[in-house]
Design a protein that fits this description.
- By secondary structure, the chain is an alpha/beta fold.
- The protein folds into 2 domains: 165 residues, 3-Layer(aba) Sandwich (Rossmann fold); 36 residues.
- It has 7 helices and 7 strands; from the N terminus they run αβαβββαβαβαβαα.
- Strand 5, helix 4 and strand 6 form a beta-alpha-beta unit.
- The radius of gyration is 21 Å and the shape is globular.
- InterPro entries: DNA_Rep/Repair_Clamp_Loader (IPR050238), P-loop_NTPase (IPR027417).
- One of its GO terms (cellular component) is DNA replication factor C complex.
- One of its GO terms (molecular function) is DNA clamp loader activity.
Length: 203
């Protein structure tokens, strides 16, 4: 069983409500999250669209902030790098909007997931608030933090399953490059001899 299947089972069976995906830039954190959500909810229920959402800023000089988000029927994504210091307001709004009406039955069809990119930017105090919120409204609310290092999320780490994504090895990159090269050569009608010469130059 691969990593994605194992995580998918935990989501669908509600063995673990929340996740932290940690890893450096370009290791595929967002791709893994979207693949997980598609497996869990089905591709037809995860038609992702980009929107601008207006968030009211109580107690601030600015009255509101317009935030770029990605949404589907089961999730909302936000990148903290785009929030200009208003992370607490935006995440609080998204959390409050994820609360189901009273007496609603939580099941797989109405599960909502909040995906927070660049979650390293969350302050420790606000992490404690998120932990309190998730404890109070446990059930259908799920949150996925994407960060470079899970040690920056110590206040919520105990609530989450941590998934560490490693950069691809040299062999994996080399193999992928050769496959792309082969595809390019075939598309450009290179002869077998010409392809062998190009391949030899890479070794």
């Amino acid at each position: 069983m691969n990593l994605l299947n194992a995580i998918c089972i935990q989501v669908t069976e509600q063995e673990c409500n929340h996740f932290i995906f940690e890893g450096g830039q370009a290791v595929g954190k967002r791709s893994m999250v979207l693949a997980l959500l598609r497996e869990a909810f089905g591709p037809h229920n995860l038609q992702v669209q980009e929107h601008s959402k207006r968030i009211e800023l109580k107690g601030e000089i600015a009255r509101h902030i317009d935030v770029k988000i990605k949404i589907s029927g089961h999730h909302v994504e936000v990148n903290l790098a785009d929030l200009h210091g208003y992370e607490n307001h935006v995440i609080t709004t998204l959390l409050n909007e994820s609360i189901l009406p009273p007496h609603s039955i939580c099941d797989h069809t109405n599960c909502k997931v909040i995906v927070v990119h660049d979650a390293d930017r969350l302050s420790s105090d606000f992490q404690h608030y998120i932990g309190w919120f998730l404890g109070r409204y446990a059930g259908c609310n799920k949150i996925i933090f994407c960060c470079s290092d899970s040690s920056n999320l110590e206040a919520v780490k105990h609530l989450c399953k941590v998934v560490t994504l490693q950069p691809p090895s040299f062999e994996e990159v080399h193999s992928t490059s050769i496959c792309l090269l082969l595809y390019g050569c075939l598309s450009s009608h290179y002869s077998a001899g010409q392809f062998d010469e190009i391949l030899s130059s890479l070794r």
